[in-house]
């Protein structure tokens, strides 16, 4: 199966699930997120060969962004294009945090410019994220804010908090896992 056929097959299976999910079907939402997560792992793995340890965190971060921005999907556009656009932005954010400016010149994905969705209003998403973050233990919240929102490296976050780099990594991982579980819980 060629690349275009695989993408079309993914879209044809995902779109009906996503539309049912948008209409409130929780089982369809869970299945759509499961399929999206599988595709994201494949998509991001190819682009993160130099950062394999960050793959799962970025998948979870992207799924969280999809959940927070789910109301911005335009049903006239392919769901897969919208998902990959968000994943692409999260990947660029990661590269920026890691100082990989040269990677911004690599081809990021197969989307044409006209297929890219317009950026959505971020105010409500930031409020939702802020509310979710308030439910985390302080150490997890601080580690996520410093590394994922403010863009500090793990070393910089460790220096700022006085925690070890390993502790920061663990807090970020646990916090993102807890956020993903909370988002999943709220959607069920």
List keywords for this structure.
188 residues, 0% strand, Rna Polymerase Sigma Factor, Chain: A, mainly alpha, 2 domains, single chain, Arc Repressor Mutant, subunit A, 8 helices, globular
Number of strands: 0
Which sequence of SSEs, written as H and E, runs from N to C?
Answer: HHHHHHHH
What's the pLDDT, averaged over the residues? 79
Gross geometry: globular
Biggest pleated sheet: none
Number of helices: 8
Radius of gyration: 17 Å
Helical content class? 55-70%
Which architecture of the largest domain per CATH?
Orthogonal Bundle
Number of domains: 2
Can you tell me the residue ranges where pLDDT is under 50 for at least 5 consecutive residues?
100-124
CATH class call of the largest domain: Mainly Alpha
CATH structural fold name of the largest domain: Rna Polymerase Sigma Factor, Chain: A
State the secondary-structure class: mainly alpha
- Straight-line distance between termini: 35 Å
**Residue share in β-strands:** under 5%
Explain what this protein looks like in three dimensions.
By secondary structure, this protein is mainly α. It has 2 domains: 1-119, Rna Polymerase Sigma Factor, Chain: A (Orthogonal Bundle), CATH 1.10.1740; 121-188, Winged helix-like DNA-binding domain superfamily/Winged helix DNA-binding domain (Arc Repressor Mutant, subunit A, Orthogonal Bundle), CATH 1.10.10.10. It has 8 helices and no strands. The protein has helices at 3-22, 26-47, 55-68, 79-98, 123-134, 138-149, 154-161, 165-187. The longest helix has 23 residues, at 165-187. It is globular, with a radius of gyration of 17 Å.
